[in-house]
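User:
Hi there, any thoughts?
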Amino acid sequence: MPAFAFAYGSFGDILATGQLIVKIIVILRKGTRSDECAETEKELKSLGGDLANLTRMPVDDAVQISPLAQSIADRVQEEIRRCHGLMVHFFSKMKATRGLFQRFMWAASEERELATFRMRIIERRTALGVVVGMLNSGILLAVQDRVIEQHTQTQDTVVNGVNSLAQQLATYQQQIVAVVCQLSRRVVEVVISPAGGSKSCPW
């Protein structure tokens, strides 16, 4: 049973996003350790955990081809790409502060930049959580449909088996009746005398 990330081809995006998250955290730890920096790091780790869960979430092979699950999976993939885009944008901005002037400008706006970045992470985590929840619901519905289908097939098999058994019993009953009738006729032939007079049966 493959995990979601492998079943729907999202592993590459998840891996790339996770790598960027690690790089951003490393850079943040090299700077000033403010409360906003600590909160941003916490949200980054939480996002990394959310993405990691997608690499472990199992998807049944039969459910994987379900139209409903596939439709919701497309939305999950889109959210993963948005998370990746957000990380790329912020990482590029941080890399651009290597010059003296850029460092000065970053220091002046760091708290505001981190606050904005953190809020966007929260937005992406919320959106990702919603569609993953929808995916889980879709998988659950698909599994329920499979169970109902299998139950119906089993029920049909049982009904067909009972009907077949009833037909066999009816056939056996007809055969038994036919044999009894034949025996009755033979008994009658035996107890009738050649002269046409009847003989009493000994029983």
Observations:
- Residues 63 and 143 are 7 Å apart (CA to CA).
